[in-house]
Structures are given as C-alpha cells and as structure tokens.
Amino acid sequence: MASSCETKKFHIVMFPWLATGHITPFLHLSNTLASKGFTITFILPKKAIQQFSRFNQHPNLIDFHPITLPPVDGLPAGVETASEVPIEVTHFLCIAMDRTRDQVEKIIRGTNPKVVVYDMAHWVSDITASLGIKSVNYTVLSAAAVAFADVPVRGIVKGKELTVDELAVPPPGYPSSTIVLRPHEGKLLSFIFFPYGEATTFWERISTGMRMCDALAIRTCDEIEGKLCEYLGEQYKKRVFLTGPVLTEPANDVVSLENQWIDWLGKFEPGSVVFCAFGSQIMLEKSQFQELVLGFELSGHPFLVALKPPAGSSTIKEALPEGFEERVKGRGIIWGEWVQQVLILNHPSVGCFVNHCGFGSMWESLMSDSQIVLVPHLGDQVLNTRLLADELKVGLEVERDEQGWVSKEKLSDAIKCVMDQGNELGCSLRKNHSKWRGVVSDPDFMSSYIDKFVQNLHDLVK
Predict the structure, then answer these.
(1) Residue 296, SS3?
(2) Is residue 254 part of a domain?
(3) Cα(66)–Cα(60) distance, rounded to whole angstroms?
(4) At 5, is the pLDDT very low, low, confident or very high (cuts 50, 70, 90)?
(5) Do 343 and 240 belong to one domain?
(6) Lower Cβ count inside 10 Å, N or C end of the chain?
(7) What is residue 93's three-state secondary structure?
(8) What is the Cα–Cα distance from 384 to 141, expressed in whole angstroms?
(9) Which stretch of DSSP H or E encloses residue 218?
(10) Is 232 a domain residue?
(11) Are residues 334 and 429 in the same domain?
C-alpha cells in the first residue's frame, strides 16, 4: 500500500477535453486525489479557468495552468469550451486544442509529473513517452458507450466507414444483450467517422488515445460495468483502473443554491417538482422544444426546465408556445441559462429528474432520491439510457418514433408513471433505484475505489 509520504511527492498533470462534461469529472477526480495529498497541475484555457476555479476545493494543491487557444477558421473568436458552440462546430475547437500541443508539452516538461491524465488529446502519449512519464487515458463516458462503438475488433480502417446497419450491431464479444442500440439507431454512431481535428476522425482520435497510453482509467465501477471494463482491457491490451463515479460534494461555504431557486422550490410539496436538464451542448429544434415543454405542462406537475434556447431562437421566451407562460404561471419555469444541477436535484421538493443521460447526469440521477425519466439524444446517451432503463431497471426511457420525435403525450405519460405512487411499473423502478442508490452512495463504496485507484497509480510508476 502506498504511504502518505509517497503520495505527497506524487504530481499529476490533468488535461481534459474542453467540454463541461469532461472538465467537471476531471476536476472531481483532482479534488479527490488532492484530498489524499496528490498535487495537480490542471491545464485549461484562461476563460475556462475563471469558470471552473471556484470548484477547486484544494487551491494549495491544485494549480490551474492556462493555455491560449489559437484562432481557427470556423471557430468563433473567444470560444474556449464546447458548451459555447453547437455540436457541429466542436470539430474546429478540437483543431484549436491540438494546436496547443507545444504549450502543453512545455507545461509537462516544466512540472515534471509522474503521470499525465488526458482523454481527447491523443497526442499526449507521444509527449509523455519521449519524457519517460506515464500516461493514463481517462474515459468519462460509460464503458458501455466506448465498448460498443470504439473497439479494435470492429475492424475499422481509414477510408472505409461502417454502414449505419453495421454500427447498430454490437461488436464481436460485446458482453451485454441489453445495453445495445435498436436496429434503426445505428445512425447515432455515424459521428465517429466525422472529422474531429485536422486529418483525423473521432474514431481515430479515441482509439489512438486508448491504444497509445500506459493504462486506461474509467469513471465507473465493477458492480455496474465490470464485464464491459474487462472487455475494453482485453480489446486494447491495457490495464484498466476504475475510479468509481467520483462525485465530490460541493463545499457549503463556497457553493450554495441560489436564493431564487430556494424560494421557488420551497413553495411546493416534497417530491412534487419535475426538474429537467439536458446538459450544456444539446440544442433542440424549435418544434421539438415546444413539444417537450407542452409535455411538462400536460403532466400536471410543477416543473423547472433548464434548456438552451432552441435553434433559430435567441431567447427562451420567444420560443415558447403561444399562451404557455400564462397557463403555467406559478407552477412552471423554462430557464435558458446554466443552473446548479446537483443542488437543485437534491432539493427536497424535487421528485423527478428528466435528463438526457449524459454520463455525469446518469450518476447524479442514480445517486439522488428523484425518480428518473430519460430522453437521450446522442449515441452514448442512448447506451447510458439502456444501462439505467433496461439493465438496472431504475429509470424510464421516453419512447420515440423511428424518426426520433418525442411527443408531449409520451413525455407526460412517462412522468406520470414514475411520479404515481400507485403505478406498478413506477413502484418497481423506485424499488430498484433505492437499492442501487444505497450501493453507490455508500461512503465506503466511494473510498474503496479511490484507494485502489491511488494504489494503481503508484504501481504504474514503479
């Protein structure tokens, strides 16, 4: 077992993909490791540092180091994170990140860490190998999403794409029959062949990063994704370190729920409010946006919905259906800005969490008391949804038609199902959710994974 003295001498560089859903879990892991005595250099663009530095719980041990993104044709000036642009523009953000390679190498040389932890910057392993430093590729997506889409056995070669029908079929040896795509959903994975940087695709970026690192780390646990993690280790012939979900509690003296939400949520009975959030990148078409908000109205429950303004609208207000605000006044809010998701989710008035099942939201919903309704949009989110809804049976996926449309009736029905104390399916989901929440919320469960991960890091550098 590594001694505390050894840990205090252990320096790590963290370099996440420039997206909230990646930066946040990297920072959670950094906070957790710093609490064990590790020192961390955390690389981010300057504006992103301003945004995330308040979540640094150990400023004496975690040092944010700035990099400057160069201008790139197609990337709006001043953009530093994926949440600032539509998904189709993140390709240009990736180019900008790749062009910081010299800056990143200078930081690594200057700080001389024992380990560099990264994800999308697949070239990091080239730098570390030349310097005799170990590299860890940290997956903050589910093991299921990576194991289904991004494994060598799929036989993908440059210049030859798989068809959408082929993408819908699990790769050979994939160890789950429930965490899968349906036949018409293969198109959700076609993005892996899209450009993601200069002269590279998303597939090439992910697979290279995993193939060239010294070890894989995954933000998950054996109890939920053990066989999938083993499969990834076998596919890439790498050691696999699991961190557990790594959700750190916000320090109460640093972050508290904003008064407007305390006051508004406080008007309602415990467990009665439906809270919805779809993450920092999802931008709906206006017609689907309007259909969804009508679904919340139709449910009859009070609701707080945090969504970005839909495509073609500059504000939420201009996108709302006619007469909507008047009809839901006093019981419903559609909010177009960032909200404190975890703090709202943990408010006693909230009883249902409607979300896109990004991996962070998946863990947060699993560890909350709220019932879970899932409306996934991207391929990895669909697989996360099948993990919760079909494998663990703790949440309910809203049914879509084959064109991907979610009707107001289907959304409303799903909410009513999980909120109705007498509904047989809802009761079964609540019972399963309670069981799994007990498992993953146990402090010993969390600490055992971190302790083992710490030991894995020490063993890696021996």
Answers:
(1) helix
(2) no
(3) 17
(4) low
(5) no
(6) C
(7) helix
(8) 9
(9) strand 215-218
(10) yes
(11) yes
pLDDT > 70? residue 409: yes
The CB density around residue 62, as the number of other CB atoms within 10 Å, is 22
Same structural domain, 101 and 162: yes
Res. 277 pLDDT band, cuts 50 70 90: very high
pLDDT of residue 416: 97
Contacts with 76 (C-beta within 8 Å, 6 or more apart), sequence order: 84, 85, 89
Checking if the pLDDT of 216 tops 80, the result is yes
- Strand 303-306 relative to strand 11-15, pairing: unpaired
For residue range 20-44, what is the model confidence (pLDDT) as tens digits? 999 999 999 999 999 999 999 999 9
Residue 94 lies inside a defined structural domain of this protein: yes
CB 143 within 8 A of CB 380: no
CATH for 355: 3.40.50.2000
- C-alpha–C-alpha distance, residues 382 and 398, integer Å: 11
Task: Give the type of residue at 254.
Answer: V
Burial 146-179, CB ≥16 within 10 A → b, else e: bbbbbbeebebeeeeebebeebbbbbeebbbeeb
Task: Reduce the DSSP state of residue 65 to 3 states and report it.
Answer: strand
- Please give the share of the chain, as a percent, with pLDDT higher than 90: 87
> 415: which residues sit within 8 A by CB, 6+ positions away?
274, 295, 296, 299, 301, 352, 354, 373
Residues 273 and 389 in one domain: yes
Domain assignment present for residue 83? The answer is yes
Bridge partners, 74 (sequence order)? none
Q: Choose among 441, 287, 270, 413: nearest CA to 354.
A: 413
Task: State the amino acid at position 259 in one-letter form.
Answer: N
Q: Are residues 150 and 174 in the same domain?
A: yes
Q: Phi and psi at residue 126, in whole multiples of 5°?
A: -65, -45
Q: Do residues 123 and 63 both lie within one domain?
A: yes
Residue 458: helix, strand or coil by DSSP?
helix
Please state, in angstroms and rounded to a whole number, the distance separating the CA atoms of residues 432 and 144.
Answer: 20
Into how many domains does the chain fold?
2
DSSP 8-state class, residue 160: B
> Domain range holding 21?
4-249+442-461
User: Rounded CA gap, 84 and 93, in Å?
Assistant: 10
Residues 232 and 343 in one domain: no
Of the candidates 65, 41, 5, the residue with the CA atom closest to the CA atom of residue 114? 41
What is the reported pLDDT for 279? Answer: 83
Residue 229's Cα: distance from chain center in Å?
A: 17
Q: Are residues 368 and 457 in the same domain?
A: no
